[in-house]
Fold this protein.
Amino acid sequence: MIEVKKLVKRFGLKTILRGLDFSVAPGEFVALLGPNGAGKTTFLRILATLSRPSLGAVSVAGHSLPAQSAQVRAKLGVVSHLPLLYPDLTAEENLLFYGRMYGIADLEARISEVLEMVDLKNRRKDLVRTFSRGMQQRLAIGRAVIHDPEVMLFDEPYTGLDQDASEMLDEVLRSVAAKGRTVVMTSHDLARAENLATRFDILSRGVIAASVSKKELAKTNLLTFYKQTLEA
Amino acid sequence: MKKTSPSLLKATLAIVQKDLAAEFRSFELISAMLVFSLLVIIIFNFALELDIKTRQSVTAGVLWTTFAFAGTLGLNRSMAVEKDRGCMDGLLLAPVDRSAIYFGKAISNLAFMLIVEAVILPVYSMLYNVNLFRLDLLGVILLGSIGYSAVGTLLSTMSAQTRTREILLPILLFPVAIPVLLAAVKASNGLLAGAEFSEILTPLNILIVYDVIFIAVAFMVFDFVVEE
Amino acid sequence: MQPKPIALKILDVVSIISIAAATYLALFFAPTEAVMGQVQRVFYFHIGTAWVAMLGFILAAVAGIAYLVTKNMLWDRFEVAAVEVSAMFFFITIALGSIWARPAWNTWWTWDPRLTTAAVTELIYIAYFMLRQGIEDPEKRARFGAVYSLLGGLSAPITFMVIRLFRTIHPVVIGSQSAAAQGGFSMTTNMRTTFFFALFAFTVLFIDLIWHRIRLGGLEEKVEQLKLEASI
């Protein structure tokens, strides 16, 4: 589903990603971990077609980037730590706008479906400005799945959420991932990541330093593994 | 689930509709532009201290200066909304031609400018007892606003990505928008003073040429300005 | 660090000699103009600098397009060099214009279309540099610079056409309408020789300065790179 070979990303003279290799099979839920500045967001932005690779081959959902980014975008859902929602519009209007931008048929019905899924049905006509951070994040996920994407990218989705909101987000993420979607999520919250993901990759110094599946991790816990990898 | 990538037109309209809907709810942008415009007109009144005759010859200049400054406010604010909440990314993620974003924002910006102008014109007419409600004058104002928004939208997209943000927009915009402003003033002046059509034709032509060239160029280079 | 190429060394010498020769021609060889007297000699330098300023202006716009098409940073360096050198020459042109205007027509500034357009172009250049200064990433800086250089390149000629429509309400300066301001006073053979030689000399100087500036740009990049490597 996602194939990355020798990805290099440079900003001027600074090299952030140094020949990164990464591969995700359909249906996998990969937690991408790593210290700040390792390049997780940069990497995710490239997968999201928002940034171009300097060198290397990237292919998402069978299309190569950056050449076929338009096709990729139709199959991609992205949630970042910014909500990407318009505060002066209602939840419904926000979804209406994005639905139109993705060319969805039967939009009204789809909006109801999505609001149900993220548990915001009773806030349909409320302005996003009045939403709490947790609610905004749930609506953001709704926005991201409205076009039923095959691949989902989450960049630090738990940022700024309290315990209750985080648990709600867990639920939503589980249901989103359950539909056989391929998910890549970056997070600093190792406990949550351990809960949700089927695989854990650690990005350090511009490459994937280690990758381990949930089964293999059974003996140690994620935190130990993470620390060991970074010390190496 | 049925989905088809929207056409350029549909996507553009969706963006325009979204901008207008959001603005009509809060009116933040338009009210700021309006108040600012009124203040500018009042300041001009005292700063220039004109007798009735001279005032007539500067009407066009005062109006266009006001529109230019207020326009900058609108352009900045319109782009700030997209930048602050990362919504620009949301737009870039949609499976549509990037030009839809340019045209959508440019049309919204134009709409805001026209709405403000629609209020300022009657106010100015009342304050100075001058009739500004002529179809030909409105046409010139439309053409000038189109050119200004076309370039302004492109430049505000750029300035929003720099360190100095909003401050940079007027600095970038005014030198490049001088032809539009001057041509519009010249044509407006001509119309108000009842000049020969041949005199008005030249600035009018320049306005049209500018609009066409810059809309085309802006649309062609927009991709370069939003990619990373 | 590459030493100065021989061609450049030769060009340096040729520039200095040409400018010196042009100065001699302008000050001594050319006859004194009947109406304006000695101050008219400024004209040769004024035209020389105006000519290369415009050349730089056009080259900057072309370099902008070239960069956007090829994404080759060399075009960016060339563009910056063209803008800087052109900015400097426009400034000298304006200054010389003032120096000429004052004794000839008793005013420091005429709202002459060409001078005013030169001033507007200077403002475009200042905006250009402020734009570049506000961007960290060199690739983005190059892209935005190219776009603005193109916009400026298109708008300045139109500015010139528009300004010509304005019959100024400033005290009519005989000069702005007279043949002299149009640079079209009848020239004797000696004047013509001086005129064309001045154009030639300034063009040589222009090429010399651009070449130096491009080299300087390359050195700046090297410094950035060394700084980066040193900090790692």
User: Anything to note?
Assistant: Chain B has a mean pLDDT of 90.
